[in-house]
Amino acid sequence: MKRNVIYVLACILFSMNAMAQLKITGRVTDAKDASPLPSVNIVIKGTTSGTVTNVDGSFTLQVPDAKSVLVFSYTGYSPQEITVGSQTNFRISLAQKVGNLTEMVVIGYGTVKKSDLTGSVTTLKGEQLMDKPVPNISQALQGKVAGVDVNVNSSTPGQVAKVRVRGIGSINSNIDPLYVIDGVIGADGNAINPNDIASIEVLKDASSTAIYGARGANGVIMITTKRGVRGESRITYEGNVNVSTLARHLKTLNSDEFVKVYNLAFANATKFDPNGGTWAPPVQLNHASLPKLFDVNDKPLYNTNWEKEVYKPAVSTSHYLNFQGGSDKSLYSLSLGYLDQNGLMIESGFKRYSARITVDNDVKKWLTVGGNFSLIQSKQNVVSDGNGSLNVPRMVSEEVPIVPVKYPDGSWAGNNDIAGLEGGPNPVHIAKSRDTITNTQQTMGDVYLLFHIAKDLDFKTDLGYNLSSSKNNFYSASDLPHLSQDQGGIGRVSSATNTYWQSENYLTWNKQVTPHQRLTALLGVSFQEYRQEVVLAETQNFLDDFFQWEYLNAGSVRSNTGSIGYRWAMNSYFARATYNINEKYLFTATGRYDGSSKFGANNKYAFFPSAGAAWRISQEDFMKDTKWISNLKLRASYGVSGNQEIGQYQSIAQIQPSTTVLGGASQSTLLPSYIGNPNLKWERSLQADAGLEFSLFKDRINMNIDYYRRTTKDLLLQAPIPWSAGMRNANVYENVGSVRNTGIEVNLNTINVQTKDLTWSTNFIFTTNKNKILKLNNGNADIFPGPNFLGQTNVLRVGESIGSFYGMTRLGTYSTDEAALAAEHSLKPGDRKYRYNADGSNYYSIIGRAYPKWTGTISSTLAYKGWDFSFDIRIVQGVNTAATFKHSTEDRQTLANSLKTVLDAWTPEHQNTMVAQVRSYKFTQDSHFDTWWVEDGSYIRGQNFTLGYTLPDAFNKRMKINRLRIYANVQNLFLITKYTGYDPEVDTFNSGYGANNAFSQNLDFFSYPRPRVWNLGVSLGL
Asked: From which residue to which does the signal peptide run (predicted)?
C-alpha cells in the first residue's frame, strides 16, 4: 500500500513538472547579413538539455520555466545568453568573432560552415567579384580563384569568357563548368546581371562536385543572388561610366611604304618566276593610272590609318538599383539594371535590361514559402563576324592606306578600286553595311516549399525553370564586294527557343547525436528536362538594302530554310552525409545515381560516389597553447563525377531529311545520317585532392594549398567510320581514351597592417596545371582535331597535352651561299628555310602549347581613413599564342597591305631574317603553320587598378544616407609581353560558350583588340 502511494505521488510530481514546461521557438541569424545559422548549439544554462538549429536557423525547445536562461553558441561567433521571460518566439542575432571560419558556404543542396568543409571550395562575396565593372560573371572571375582559368578571348561587347576549372578534361564534349543559380541547375551564368550576386562558390574537387553527378566533371559554380533582409529596408545604387581606348597597335605599312613594297614585289617576281619572265603590276600606282588616288607628282593623296578609322574611343554606362527589406516573417528584394556597352570597334555594342525579384515568407512555423523571378533582355551587335573572311578586323590590317574611307563624291573606296588587289571592302564600309544583331530574352527562377517536419528534419521541394529565346538578324548589303555583292545582298533570320524545367525534392536531417557529435544527412530525387526549337530562313538578291532582315520577301532567291527540334531529360537520386566529431574530425560521403536520355540503351544510368575527410588539428588539446596558430586543417577527398555534355541522340541511328531531283522536279528524301552507338555512356572523372589550410597570428596570414589529380576515362570521342558505311556523318561517338590533369593551387592572404585608420592587405593566387593524354582510340594514333589553317594547327598525341600546336620549324631564310641547299626543295635564296626529314619531306612536330604552365594573380588593397586603393596584376607564363594573321600580312604582297615587319624582309644586303623576300603573290612560297607564327604568349597584365573615397559618417548623416563612395578605375593599364599581336589572350576561331573549343585557344587570325578601360563610378546606400 505504501509503495502504491509513493508511486502515485511520484506520478503527480512528474506530471506537474511536465505541465510547468514551456515550449519556445525561434530563429538564429548572422547579425551582419541576417543569413540563417544552422547547427547553433542552444543549451539551458546549468543543464545538459538543449537543441541545435536546423538548416534555416530555426529551433524548438522545451524549457522548465520563464526564469530559464538560454546559451546560444556557435563556432566563430560571440556567445549570447537570453532569459526566456514571457516570450515564446525569439529572433537571435549572433555577431562574428574575428576570422572567417564560420562563414557559411553554399554547396549543392545546402550550406555548411567553412570550417566544416572537407572538399575544395572557394567562396567569393559579391563585393569581391564586382571590384571592377564587367558585363558578365565569367569576366569577373578572372584571376579570382586558384585553379580556375579564365580566358577573355574577345572584347566584342557582351561576349563571355571561357572558364576552365582544373584544366581540360575532355576532347569532344563540352568543357564549361556547370552553373547553378539559386538552385537552378545548368543555367547560363553569364545571362544574369553580375550586380545581383551575393556570393559565388566554386566547387572544384570530386567531394564537392559529385552531388551533381553526371554534370559535375568540369567543376561547379554556385551562384547565390541577393535576397531580402530583416530590419530597416535598404536601397543601393551602383552606377558607372567608362571610356574604352585602344591599348596596343598592330603596325601596318603607310602609303609611301606600301607603294615601295608593292613595286619592289613585282620587280622581284622575275627572280622567282620559273620561266624568268618580267613582271609588272596590272595597274601602275601613279597619277596616270589612278588619278583619284595620286597627285600629278605620283604621290599618294591619302594615307589612311585604318586602326584610327575603326577603333575609336567608346563610352559605356551602367546603372543598378536594388531594394531589400523584410520583417520577422517575410523578406523581399527587387533589383533593376541597365547596361549600355559600346565597343571599341565602330558600330559594335551590347545593351542589357534586367529585373529580379525574390520573396521568402514564413507562412507557418512549419512552412516557409519563397521563390525568385528574373527577366533579362539584351541586344548584341557583332561587327567582327565571319572569321577568316574579309571581315572588319582583317581589313583593318589588309586594306591599303592609299585609299580613303570615301571619295569626295561620297562613294565608298576600297581595295577593289585597284586592279589585282584582293577586293575587300574597307573596314568602315563593312561595319556600316553588314549587321549581325542578336536579341535575347531570358526568364529564370524557382518556387520552393520548405517544410519543418520535426526539430531536426526538413523537406524542401523546388520547381525551377529557365526559358530563353533568341533571334539573330543578319544582313550584308549588296554593295560589299566579295562578301555579298555577287548575291545582291544576303538577309537571314534565325531563332531559337529553349525551355528547361527541374523538380528538386530532398530531405535534410540535422541531428546533434551527442553534445560533441553532429550528423547532417541529405536524401533527394531530381527530374530535369530541356527542349530546344530552332528555325532559319535566308534570302538573297534584294530589291533594295532598305528591307534587310525585316522583310525577307524582298529577296528573290530563297537560299536556305530549315528547322530542328530536340530534347533531353534526366532522372537522378542523390544522397550526402556529413559527420562532425568534436569540431575536429570531419567526414563527408556523397553519391548520385543519374539517368540520362543522351546515352545508350545499355547505359542509361550510372553511379557517381565520393568521400572526403578533414582533420582540424588546431582544435586538438595539444594545440591549445599554440596561440599563434588560429586554424590548421588537413583534408583529403576522392570521388567520381561525370560529363554528359554532347549532342542529343548520339546513341541511336539517325536519318536526315534532304532533297534531290527526280523527273526534273525537287523531291524530299531521307538519307542515313548517323550510325549510333547503343553502348554510349558518360565520361568519368576520377579525382583525388589533398589540401592544407592554416591561419596564423589571429588570422593575419591565411593560406590554402591544394594538390589534385584528375583522370578522365571513357572519353566521348568521335571515332571515324568508313565512308562506305553510307552515312553522311562519317564518325560515331565511342567511349575511348583517357586524359589526366594534375596541379597545385595556392591562395595566400595576408593582413600586413591593421590600425585604427590604416589597413593594408594582399592576396596571392598561384596555379599550375599539367595536362597529359594517356590513351586515345585503338592503336593510339594521332588525332588532328582542327581548326585547320593552311593545314593542321593542333594534334592530340598520347603523352602530350591537349592544346598542343603542330607545325613546321622555320629556321630563317636561305642565303645566297645556300642556293644549292634551297634548290633541293625547289626554292631559292630569299625563300623561307624549314627543317626537313632525312628523306626531304616536311618535318612536323609539336611547336607550342595553348595553355599555360602556371598562372598567378597579385592583389593588394590599401585603406586609409576614407580612402582606398587596390590593384590586381595577372601573370600567365609558359604558354604560346599563334599569330596566324602573319600569313596574309607577311606572305601576300601585291594583294593587300602588309605589316611593317615586311620592311625587314630578305634582301641581298640583309639576309639574316625570318621574313622571305617580297615578291608578287603569284610566286609566293607556300605558307605553313610554323614556329615563326607560334610566339611566346606569356604576359604580365596590369589588370585592375582602383582608387576610391568613402564620404565620412558625419556627411552621410547630414545627407540622410547610409553610404556614399566615389571611385576611379582603370582596367588593362599595362601589358608586358613578347607577343606581337594585339593581345596574347585570344581565340578568333571559336570564342563562344557551350562547346568544346579547347583546340582554338590562342589562335589569332585578326582579333578584336582588348581596350584599356577608364571608369568613374559611384556607390550609394540609403
From this structure: 1-20
Which of 635, 736, 739 has the alpha carbon at shortest distance from 686? Answer: 739
Nearest to 822 by CA among 911, 711, 748, 743: 911
Q: Is the pTM value of this prediction over 0.90?
A: no
The Cα–Cα gap between 416 and 391 comes to 15
Which domains are seen in the chain, by residue range?
19-94 (2.60.40.1120), 104-233 (2.170.130.10), 256-310 (no CATH), 786-892+927-1021 (no CATH)
Q: How far apart are CA 512 and CA 591, in angstroms?
A: 23
Find the largest Cα–Cα distance for the chain: 138
Report the pLDDT averaged over residues 566-583: 94
C-alpha cell read off for 576: 550526402
Residue 222 buriedness (CB in 10 A; 0-12 / 13-18 / 19+): buried
Pairwise CA distance, residues 511 & 597, whole Å: 37
DSSP code, position 549: G
Which pLDDT tens digit goes with each residue over 881-911? 999 999 989 998 999 999 999 999 999 999 9
Three-state SS at 209: helix
445 and 370 Cβ atoms separated by less than 8 Å: no
- Return the exposure string of 905-941: e unless at least 16 CB atoms fall within 10 Å of the residue's CB, then b: bbeeeebeebbbbbbbbebbbebbbbbbbbbbbbbbb
Rounded-to-integer distance, Cα 678 and Cα 650, Å: 9
Residue matched to cell numbers 562578301: 483
Identify any residues that bridge with 534 across adjacent strands, giving them in sequence order: 496, 564
Q: Which helix (H) or strand (E) holds 453?
A: strand 434-454
What does the alpha-carbon distance between residue 319 and residue 237 come to, in Å, rounded to a whole number?
7
Chain centroid to CA 844: how far?
A: 33
93-107, 372-386, 926-940 — which is least confidently predicted?
Answer: 93-107
C-alpha cell at 335: 533589383
